[in-house]
Amino acid sequence: MAITKKQEERALSADEKELVGMSGVRASRSLTDSELSRLVKRLRTKRDRAKTVAERQRREMRGKSRPRGAIAAKDDDGSQLKLMILSAALIRLDNEIGRRAAAKAKEAMVASAKRALALKQKAKPAKPVAKPRGPAKVARGKARVEVENHVPRSVRGSVRSQVARAQAKRDSR
Fold first, then answer.
1. What separation in angstroms does the CA of 79 have from each of 11, 14, 26, 111, 146?
2. d(CA 39, CA 49)
3. Is the pLDDT confidence value at 109 over 70?
């Protein structure tokens, strides 16, 4: 549900109206980081206060607690509206803080990449290593280890045939 300006003016005090007005996108972008953090802190306290008042009024309406004033609260619509407005303002400010943090992180990343590029260009280029001629024994790593074959040469052919027949039998199933 969209909240109209008229509803905002009715629900908020003058101080709260000023805080909510400063939470707009254009207004919050013009604030410094310290001003923004102070604004968020003030808005959080106002929101928390509105939240506790709304909870208290709801409890009074249900009869769970004694009324704080002369008579018990009959509804908490105004407090709920105030809570929604202040929460929306806080969300806008949190988005602005996130946007600024992302921009700072991007600037830091770009600066780091530029420093790394400058160091890379400053470093002496490595001389190319001449490739050795002959078989690729170097690329293979460890030399092959000859394993003793336990099947005698006279039996190898019959074993291979026996394995082939067993595999063919399995494949035909």
1. 8, 16, 27, 48, 85
2. 15
3. yes
pLDDT digits (tens, 9 = 90+) for 120-152: 888 877 777 777 676 655 555 677 788 887 777
Per the listing, tokens 């026996």 go with 162
Please identify which residue in the block is written with the tokens 């078989």: 135
Looking from the CA of 49 toward its CB, the CA atoms found within 13 Å total 8
Alpha helix positions (H), 32-145: 33-62, 77-122, 137-140
Cα angle 135, 140, 143 (rounded to 5 degrees) comes to: 90
If 0-12 CB within 10 Å is exposed, 13-18 middle and 19+ buried, where does residue 138 land?
A: exposed
Dihedral (CA of 128, 129, 133, 138) sign: negative
Q: What percent of the chain has pLDDT over 70?
A: 90
- pLDDT tens for each residue of 66-95: 777 666 666 777 888 899 999 999 999 999
